[in-house]
Amino acid sequence: VDHLLGIKYLTKEDIALIFQTADHFKEVINRPIKKVPSLRDITIANLFFENSTRTRLSFELAEKRLSADVVNFSASSSSVTKGETLIDTVNNILSMKVDMVVMRHPNPGAGIFLSRHVNASIINAGDGAHEHPTQALLDCYSIREKLGEIEGKKVVIVGDILHSRVALSNIFALKLLGAQVKVCGPYTLIPKHIRSLGVEVEPNLKNALEWCDVANMLRVQHERMDISYFPSTREYVQLFGLNRQLLDSLNKKIVVMHPGPINRGVEITSDVADSDQAIILDQVQNGVAIRMAVIYLLASKIKQV
Ligand code: CP
């Protein structure tokens, strides 16, 4: 059975096929009837052991627009609270003839673990601070849509790199597609091994922004943070926050991204988030087409569709 567990396991050709398929589905979801009948014989379970707005709704919409049957599971209202294990939970769901599992989980590697113990196709919708592959795919797809090919583009990822699955998956995808990548943030929030991924570290935000074509502003992941890693919010905003004045002081017009949810006034001010340089809602819109493509390509390996 095939899975999407991380960008680490994909090739450049895999991503090209996903983008090509997403191009088709993007055209489909802009039609008056936004649905195709492709996956009428597929049932998908969305398992969320951690909160989500964008990813959960985007997967559900993608599945429904492919005509799949969908069941949604939220850990907080399930028998997980009575002590049921992950494998038991998933095997019970699969016994009801489910073909594919989309899972968000707080533990890094949860999707990989599950793929070794259950007989279903697994899509990782974010596993702790490890990977968020569909986010990186939709981010790269959005850069490609805005600037043309990814190859040769300069992307800076700003903020809490240490706790960010978005950062790691983006680094893997951007490097694979030939972009130059820098990270910028408090040194306590930059992983020690980051240079081994072919990424440069730029501690000064203004320098990083002057260099880049695209700035991806990450959310500070307070829920995964040891408090000693974090400067005060005031200091963080002063050194690593993107505001209109800073954006306007640059020599060129850069593209601003954010995976959401935004802490307005912390990593990015509202006048930047809502400006014409930000493609934040385009990222969300593209997420549905990207997830339709991923699900369609994996489903085509399970059944003839
Ligand atoms: N970008 C993202 O993963 O957002 P959610 O946590 O709301 O799904």
TrEMBL record:
One GO term of the biological process aspect: amino acid metabolic process
Origin: domain of life: Bacteria
Cleaved signal peptide residues: none
Pfam families attached to this UniProt entry: OTCace, OTCace_N
Gene3D superfamilies per UniProt: Aspartate/ornithine carbamoyltransferase
EC number from the UniProt entry: 2.1.3.2
Aspartate/ornithine carbamoyltransferase carbamoyl-P binding domain location: 3-145
InterPro entries hit by this protein: Asp/Orn_carbamoyltranf_P-bd, Asp/Orn_carbamoylTrfase, Asp/Orn_carbamoylTrfase_sf, Asp_carbamoyltransf, Asp_carbamoyltransf_Asp/Orn-bd
Amino acids binding carbamoyl phosphate: 54-55, 104, 132, 135, 260-261
Domain Aspartate/ornithine carbamoyltransferase Asp/Orn-binding: 151-297
SUPFAM superfamilies (UniProt xref): Aspartate/ornithine carbamoyltransferase
Residues bound to L-aspartate: 82, 165, 219
NCBIfam families, sorted: asp_carb_tr (TIGR00670), PRK00856.1 (NF002032)
Family: Belongs to the aspartate/ornithine carbamoyltransferase superfamily. ATCase family.
Protein name, as recorded: Aspartate carbamoyltransferase
Species the sequence originates in: Salinimicrobium sediminis
Protein encoded by which gene: pyrB
